[in-house]
Design goal:
The complex is a heterodimer of chains A (442) and B (459). The relative contact order of chain A is 0.13. With 442 residues, chain A is of the alpha/beta class. Helix content of chain A is 38%, strand content 18%. Chain A has helices at 4-10, 20-29, 37-41, 48-56, 60-70, 74-80, 87-90, 102-115, 138-149, 166-169, 178-190, 204-213, 240-249, 267-278, 298-306, 374-377, 415-441; strands at 130-134, 153-158, 194-197, 216-219, 238-239, 259-263, 282-286, 310-312, 315-323, 326-340, 346-350, 356-359, 362-365, 382-383, 386-387, 400-402. In chain A, a hairpin with a 5-residue loop joins strand 10 and strand 11. In chain B, 32% of the residues lie in helices and 20% in strands. Chain B contains 15 helices and 21 strands. Chain B has helices spanning 28-37, 82-95, 111-124, 146-149, 152-163, 181-190, 234-245, 248-253, 266-274, 284-289, 293-308, 350-358, 405-409, 430-436, 444-454; strands at 6-8, 11-13, 17-19, 41-48, 58-63, 66-73, 100-106, 128-132, 170-173, 195-198, 202-204, 207-208, 215-216, 226-229, 257-260, 279-282, 336-340, 363-366, 372-373, 392-395, 416-420. In chain B, helix 1 (28-37) runs parallel beside helix 2 (82-95), helix 2 (82-95) runs parallel beside helix 3 and helix 9 (266-274) packs across helix 11. The radius of gyration of chain B is 26 Å and the shape is globular. Classes of the chains: A alpha/beta (442), B alpha/beta (459). The interface between A and B is medium-sized, with 27 and 25 residues. The structure holds flavin-adenine dinucleotide (FAD), flavin mononucleotide (FMN) and iron/sulfur cluster (3 copies). Residues 340, 345-351, 393, 409-410, 412, 415-416 of chain B line the site of one iron/sulfur cluster. Residues 42, 44, 46, 48, 71, 77-78, 81, 83, 86-87, 102-103, 106, 416 of chain A line the site of one iron/sulfur cluster (SF4). Chain B: It is an enzyme of class 1 (oxidoreductase). Chain B: Belongs to the dihydropyrimidine dehydrogenase family. Chain B: Keywords: Iron, Iron-sulfur, Metal-binding, Oxidoreductase. Chain B: It comes from Deinococcus aerophilus.
Chain lengths: 442, 459
């Protein structure tokens, strides 16, 4: 193992927290726009000018409340949101100078209360209604927090050992330390939510049990593992998600590779590549199309370049090469872009006879996540592999709601969208429970 | 290169930037250093009766993260022995013959006390004496400072004691803690003052500390009022300067006025000069940033004068004074409206909320398609794209009363302009109008009739 302290430092949160003066100066820069575009651009519609003004006046607790009332996962979102695409991208100061560092200010306020263990919210007066939430990712936590504050009894079932979903297992430490994600799970517990980890929903029978014991069920299942590529040597591929997870939870098991190839060019691929790079490897990303078709955000791509990560475009891996049980390289074929495919992007085609080898000692696959297979098992309607829901996040099954990555058939999956789904679902579930409550008493 | 030299009541200096009597002029070593940085003159920290200073004597005002917009002090006059100060004054004047060295003094209100100190000051070779009738705290309780400055008779008498015995120019430094600054000025002139200076510090309680619940500065658990100075007092100082320099009595006497109060930069200084100050003094800005600020003051003023074609200070002194009027002389028929430059507007909508909540509700929000919309947004739409669909504020000019609130809140320079528009109303001043039709000033009916005649509609 290389120098451990240096390695772990390399994997610390990238952006340092604001100091009090920095936060105050930045907060004072905000114009406190009226009907502000940043508020509209935030999927959870946090009242940004208000929370920033509260930082400016030294009312950090009030600021955190403004944030967390709209977005219970404000601490995670402050770190992981693609702010350039959302709030900061819409800030009126983009045209003048630099947009306000909304994400970092949000983190400043939320950390202030969470690091001090200040409880800002309480469970509502008991309604006598019970809701089961499956999956403790951002969607599950958000819906649980909302429902608990409305007085409903919530049981949160999570199959893994730790709660938090991808915030805990999937977001690299450079962006969010595990403690932050776990603090949010604890905050939900503080609201009286019964978080049961190590509890998996596996089949229709299980769902029926939940439906018999609870008044409503919310499914925040997220997505699955990295799909198989179906190429020879597949067994030598490292799963990108697993690789990131290990870097967060048990960094000591990560392989010590010097030359790493990452397959894929999305956000997961960039994250995995960043971790490998920060651990000292030289890293090359293979992508079968060009820069123009990449799904990663522009700033992510630029970040990867600034980290010294190399890109090879129009390159398709066809075989993982190994010798003596160790990876020695990836055999690739050159691609050319053809007419648009089903997704509307130019379809890549292999150029026969253009095979070549990229030597390396580890290959990470990060070509996406599998669709929620459980959906079909549960008998839910799906669209394109994702759970089908209506505008109120209700699935095809009465009393069953869903949200987050498992329903996100369109648009980019992100934490903040999952949080907003949770809010919508909670509102719908509350409406359902309130009406049946009246009916029962009426 | 403009000529910045000053000739003020017989006192000469290479430039109009003088350090005010205060901590920056507390000792020979300091003033020596200040002169090395280029200050044109210095008014020595007030000398006089024995005093004992206390700790924790300053409190600062921070607004919006900007520190020291004002300072408030409970300091007394110089706490260094008189003979030490006098010896150093003589030395400084010998070393710096071209700079203005003025000695500020404050003693008991008696002719003997003044005679004694004036003789000692004359012996130092200083260029002038400034009488400190201004300090509002500490000394006033002992019958000096503002206690003299606030009573015109005392001011006149004390000034007379000094002017009748000295051959040096005597500057009377006025306290702003009065209702009519001109009364104090007349008294000083009657007492023979050769020049006036203003403003000294303003009575103030700076703040209450929300952690300790103590008044600041907290001196062993107690607080008292102090003297307020710094950028925040500039408008008050400019007003008092204007009052003096438009006052017939002061003008007739021909005494020059040295301006101070909130000068931070050459720009502030230029404003004082345009309103008639013959030289300026600076305290808080030097306390905040050190003597080095004078370099830009000299450089900036001289560059600006070159740009404007002013060869020397007399070319610009008092240039803004002819505009000074009373409310009654202003043109009631003048009409301005706010005009927004859509290319500069960043759509912060601050003008909209200001006008809508607290002015005359004459700004509309107009969506890119040209439709008037209400504030609010579609919660299903998000992302940076919303910036493109944002409505733009548009002024309904016929309804705009020209209050200029929007122009004041707009964060973008030059985005909202107050444009003068042709007016159908008669160009008449209030004084003229009420001389002609006195009933307008006393009867709402008459007023409404006049408005109707003029087609004035107020929303
Ligand atoms: C590598 C990577 C990086 C990312 N980076 C960002 C980023 O920077 N910014 C951003 O906004 N988004 C990012 N995302 C996306 C973001 O993490 C997700 O959109 C978000 O976590 C979705 O929340 P969720 O609650 O829907 O699902 P998840 O976070 O996936 O949570 C689902 C939870 O449900 C549990 N679960 C699943 N099935 C069952 C079951 N049958 N029984 C019990 N429990 C179950 C899972 O164990 C998991 O805890 C990233 C995603 C990945 C993979
Ligand atoms: C700490 C402090 C001490 C002062 N001491 C004196 C003094 O001894 N004599 C005096 O005439 N004025 C004194 N002043 C007033 C200044 O000379 C000056 O009139 C006032 O500060 C306004 O100028 P400014 O805004 O540039 O500071 C003092 C001001 C301050 C801030
Ligand atoms: S939640 Fe995300 S998008 Fe919304 S304001 Fe915070 S950082 Fe920006
Ligand atoms: S748009 Fe920018 S300046 Fe305006 S309120 Fe939002 S963060 Fe502040
Ligand atoms: S205050 Fe200025 S920049 Fe802001 S919306 Fe109004 S005109 Fe535009």
């Amino acid at each position: 193992m290389t120098d451990v302290p240096a390695a772990s430092r390399a994997l610390q949160e990238l952006l340092p927290p604001f100091g009090p003066h920095e936060a105050s100066a930045e907060a004072h820069r905000c114009l406190y726009c009226y009907d502000a575009p940043c508020v509209q651009a935030c999927p959870t519609h946090i009242d940004i000018p208000t929370f920033i003004r509260k930082i400016a006046t030294g009312n950090l607790r009030g600021s955190a409340r403004t944030i967390l009332e709209a977005n219970f996962l404000g601490g995670t979102c402050a770190r992981v949101c693609p702010v350039e695409e959302l709030c900061e991208g819409a800030c009126v100061l983009n045209s003048e100078e630099k947009p306000i560092a909304i994400g970092r200010l949000q983190r400043h306020a939320v950390d202030h209360v969470q690091e001090r263990g200040v409880q800002l919210f309480r469970p509502g007066p008991p309604s006598g209604r019970r809701v089961a939430v499956v999956g403790s990712g951002p969607a599950g936590l958000s819906v649980s927090a909302e429902l608990a504050q409305l007085g409903h009894t919530v049981t949160l079932l999570e199959k893994r050992e730790l709660g938090g979903g991808l915030s805990t297992y999937g977001i690299i430490v450079l962006r969010e330390p595990v403690e932050v994600a776990l603090r949010e799970v604890d905050a939900v517990r503080e609201l009286g939510v019964d978080v049961q980890t190590g509890h998996e929903l596996t089949d229709r029978a299980g769902l029926d049990v939940l439906l018999s014991e609870y008044d409503a069920v919310f499914l925040g299942l997220g997505l699955g593992a990295v799909p198989a590529m179906g190429i020879p040597g597949e067994e030598h591929l490292l799963d990108g998600l697993r690789y990131i997870e290990d870097s967060k939870i048990r960094p000591e098991v990560l392989p010590d590779a010097q030359n790493v190839v990452v397959i894929g060019a999305g956000n997961t691929a960039v994250d995995a590549a960043t971790v490998a790079r920060r651990r000292g490897a030289s890293v090359t990303m293979l992508y079968r199309r060009t820069e123009a078709e990449m799904t990663a955000y522009r700033h992510e791509y630029e970040f990867a370049l600034s980290e010294g990560i190399g890109y090879r475009f129009l390159t398709q891996p066809v075989r993982v090469l190994s010798g003596g049980g160790r990876v020695t390289g990836v055999e690739c074929v050159r691609m050319v872009l053809g007419p648009p495919d089903a997704g509307g992007r130019p379809g890549p085609r292999p150029l026969p006879g253009s095979e070549f080898v990229v030597p390396c000692d580890a290959v990470i696959s990060a070509i996406g996540q599998e669709k929620p297979a459980l959906a079909v098992e549960l008998g839910l309607e799906v669209t394109g592999g994702y759970i089908a829901v209506d505008g109120a996040m209700q699935t095809s099954m009465p009393r069953v709601y869903a949200g987050g990555d498992c329903v996100r058939a369109r648009g980019t999956a992100s934490t903040v969208m999952a949080v907003q789904d949770g809010k919508y679902a909670a509102a719908a579930i509350h409406r359902l429970l309130s009406s049946t409550l009246e009916a029962a008493h009426g | 290169m403009a000529d910045l030299s000053v000739h003020f009541a017989g006192i000469r200096a290479p430039n109009p930037f003088w350090l005010a009597s205060a901590p920056p002029t507390n000792s020979g070593a300091q003033i020596h250093r200040a002169f090395e940085h280029g200050w044109g003159g210095a008014v020595w920290k007030t000398i006089g009766a024995p005093v004992l200073n206390i700790s924790n004597r300053y409190a600062g005002l921070s607004v919006g993260g900007q520190r020291l917009l004002a300072i408030n002090n409970v300091e007394l006059i110089s706490d260094r022995p008189l003979d030490v100060n006098l010896r150093e004054i003589a030395e400084i004047k010998r070393l710096w013959p071209d700079r203005a060295v003025i000695v500020s003094a404050m003693v008991d209100a008696s002719p003997e006390a003044w005679r004694e100190i004036v003789m000692m000051i004359e012996d130092t070779g200083a260029d002038g004496i400034e009488l400190n009738y201004g300090c509002p705290q500490g000394m006033s309780e002992r019958g000096m400072g503002a206690a003299v400055g606030q009573v015109p008779e005392m001011c006149e008498l004390n000034t007379h004691w000094v002017t009748s015995i000295t051959r040096l120019p005597v500057i009377v430094k006025l306290t702003p803690n009065v209702t009519h600054i001109t009364d104090s000025a007349h008294a000083a002139i009657a007492g023979g003052a050769h020049a006036l200076s203003l403003i000294n510090t303003i009575n103030s309680v700076m703040s209450v500390d929300l952690d300790t619940l103590q008044i600041t500065p907290s001196i062993g658990g107690r607080g008292t009022h102090g003297g307020y100075a710094g950028p925040a007092v500039k408008p008050i100082a400019l007003n008092m300067l204007t009052e003096l320099l438009t006052d017939e009595g002061v003008l007739r006497s021909g005494v020059p006025v040295c301006g101070m109060g909130g000068i931070q930069t050459w720009r502030d200084a230029a404003e004082f000069l345009l309103l008639g100050a013959g030289a300026v003094q600076v305290c808080t800005a030097a306390m905040h940033h050190g003597y080095r600020i004078v370099e830009d003051m000299i450089d900036g003023l001289s560059n600006w004068m070159d740009d404007k074609g002013f060869a020397a200070l007399p070319d610009l002194t008092g240039r803004a004074l002819p505009q000074v009027s009373t409310f009654g002389q202003l043109d009631l028929g003048y009409q301005a409206v706010a005009r927004i430059d859509p290319d500069r507007c960043i759509q912060c909508n601050l003008c909209y909320v200001a006008c809508n909540d607290t002015a005359h509700q004459c700004i509309d929000l107009v969506a890119p398609g040209g439709v008037r919309v209400n504030p609010g947004y579609d919660p299903r739409v998000n992302g940076r794209a919303v910036a493109d669909t944002r409505p733009t504020p548009v002024v309904r000019e016929p309804d705009c009363v020209g209050c200029a609130l929007c122009a004041n809140v707009c964060p973008v320079d030059g985005c909202i302009e107050m444009v003068s528009v042709p007016s159908t109303q008669e160009h008449v001043s209030w004084d003229q109008l009420t001389a002609r039709r006195p009933e307008i000033a006393s009867s709402w009916e008459a007023m409404m009739a006049y408005r109707k005649e003029q087609g004035i509609e107020i929303h």
